[in-house]
Amino acid sequence: MEPPPFTPLKQFDVQSINLNEVPGDGYDFLKHVIVERLHCPETVVTDKDFSQYDTNQTIWCDQFLEKFPHSDNDRRLVPSEIWQQGASLSQQDKNILHRFISTPPLISIVIRLTERSVYRALEYLITEFIDSGYEYERAHWMFALMCCIGVPLQHSTCAALRELARSCRKLRRTCECADCEIARACSVFICLSARYFGQLDLADSLVS
């Protein structure tokens, strides 16, 4: 079920809204905003001729590539080792996480995890899920960690959840019935990723 709007607004005739008039109250203001949005094109393209600025161009792409070869350029763009270590789980962290997975995700354990640890652990477990398939203990921990994060999501976590939803959809197709453990778990992860975390394009269609 979709969450209710923050401010309930009854249906109204958009033709009755005069944008030249000052809104009488907050509801009128919202109606003005809605009508103005309807008149805004989804895509705006300019027909301006930018060739007049060619003389201001100091260096062209081919000249840039000649001056900075790919090999040298790539080395300059590679993140530092410290950055890479901070952005991923260390082997020690992975070993600790695997020991944790052997026990249920009790509140007493999960509550002690830092926000950074929650995000990194969840992304790692999702990768393991996609690569290795369903495992009850892993899925149990994934659900617990998903309950600990809020929105807006970090970019990497959002991407991981989207991959999780796609992977769950593929895995669910291999199930013999919708009531088996794997199918139910996949449906839960799809629902959480799509509806709770706002990735609605990956949501299951609602059956009336």
Automatic annotation (TrEMBL):
Could you list this entry's UniProt keywords, alphabetically sorted: Cytoplasm, mRNA processing, mRNA splicing
Gene Ontology terms: cellular component: SMN complex; spliceosomal complex
| A Gene Ontology BP annotation from the UniProt entry | spliceosomal complex assembly
Q: Could you tell me which InterPro entries the record lists for this protein?
A: GEMIN2, Gemin2/Brr1
Report the superkingdom from the record. Eukaryota
Give the subcellular location. Cytoplasm
Record-linked Pfam families? SIP1
**Hey, which family's this protein in?**
Belongs to the gemin-2 family.
Q: Provide the protein name.
A: Gem-associated protein 2
Q: What is the lineage of its organism?
A: Eukaryota, Metazoa, Ecdysozoa, Nematoda, Enoplea
